[in-house]
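Hi support team,

I'm filing this because I wasn't sure whether my run with 2-phosphoglycolic acid finished correctly. The job status page said complete, but I'd like someone to confirm that the output block is well-formed before I use it downstream. Pasting the exact inputs I used:
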Amino acid sequence: MNPLRPPMMVANWKMHKTAAQAAAFFQALEQRLPASTNGCRIVVAPAFPSLPAAVEAARGRNIAIAGQNLHWESEGAFTGEVSGPMLAGAGCTYVIVGHSERRQYFGETDETVQRKVRAALAARLVPVVCVGETKVQREANEIELVLRYQFERAFWGMSAEDLGACVLAYEPVWAIGTGNVATPEIAEGAHRFLRRCALEIFGPDAAAALTILYGGSIKLGNEVPLLAQPDVDGGLVGSASLDPEVFASLVLAAAKAAKH
Ligand code: PGA
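And here is everything the job wrote out:
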């Protein structure tokens, strides 16, 4: 990890936890985290109906709350959708954009990802922008091609300042929810490549300041070597974030990795 970029751990709960379960999680998390987590930024992304309970429970605790998705328009006739201003109004400060499950099951494209990044920035939310190759693309040796394309499209026409207001997540699709975590070498290689893309498009300062999270089957036992990589600034954690004890341990591991 790099001292320029404080560590960050994001819990992506996906379609788990009711409002009551969300409140219980925060209570349990509080008991397991020391007062100081060494500057580790903690973000939790509950499902929409649990946002108010999460915002309430996280108040005064240095934990940011994220939406898992947003629409690119601020309002309109879009049944079932939620906008950036609505998330901000509910107390969110982050939003996940372009998760591979959205791309795979809900028709998210590089074009909609870009529109959502802009909408998030307009609503003063920090977009956590997800990119990553599928197993087929990896086997066809297209990793860099895919990552470069997704990165370029997501931030097309934006400024270095815009990028500075975003977080990037490398989430190899073959590693998400499969238990097949990327090796530290694979993760570092992809992160280094993405940082080079940022450098070529937005310049050295923007690249050096960009937080790049790794996501895909992080759990207790594989987190230490991943977080030790110089270009891995933290994690986007799915199933291992559902248990407050496990998530607290992952936060502490990220804080510890930052000190080295
Ligand atoms: P996982 O999910 O940790 O359950 O693999 C990660 C993610 O989808 O962000």
